[in-house]
Amino acid sequence: MPKPLLDLESEFGARAERRLREDIIGWLVTVNSQGGPQPRPVWFIWDGETLLVYSIPGRAKVRHIEGNPAVALHLETGENGEDVVIVTGTAALDTSAPPIDKNQAYLDKYGEEIKRIGFEEASGMAEQYSVAIRIIPGSIRSF
After folding, report:
1. Is the dihedral of CA 114, 119, 122, 128 positive or negative?
2. pTM of the prediction?
């Protein structure tokens, strides 16, 4: 059995796990066709093993992942650059993921934010952000 990426008994593992569950914004870095990094802010959920991000079809991040699955997701640091959490791994489009309006974990985390950005119902966001991207971490670094 593979070793878990996070030792939840350690300070590092517990802190990284909490931040992956609670932080609202992560910076998803994909690779464009010229090999250049392309960071963008995203909403995400962490299930303890993978990250899930939703996108509008045809967006650059979707095209980049289709061309090169290598990605990184990093969280905002503290005011002085402390509390770093960086996940690197591979991403793929996940047609088996539930749509936003049927994903209770996503709704629990982002329900108020969905309304704040102008969607009266989560189904409206689900229609627009209909592509699910699953990120499988290869490593998680924190310091």
Report:
1. negative
2. 0.92
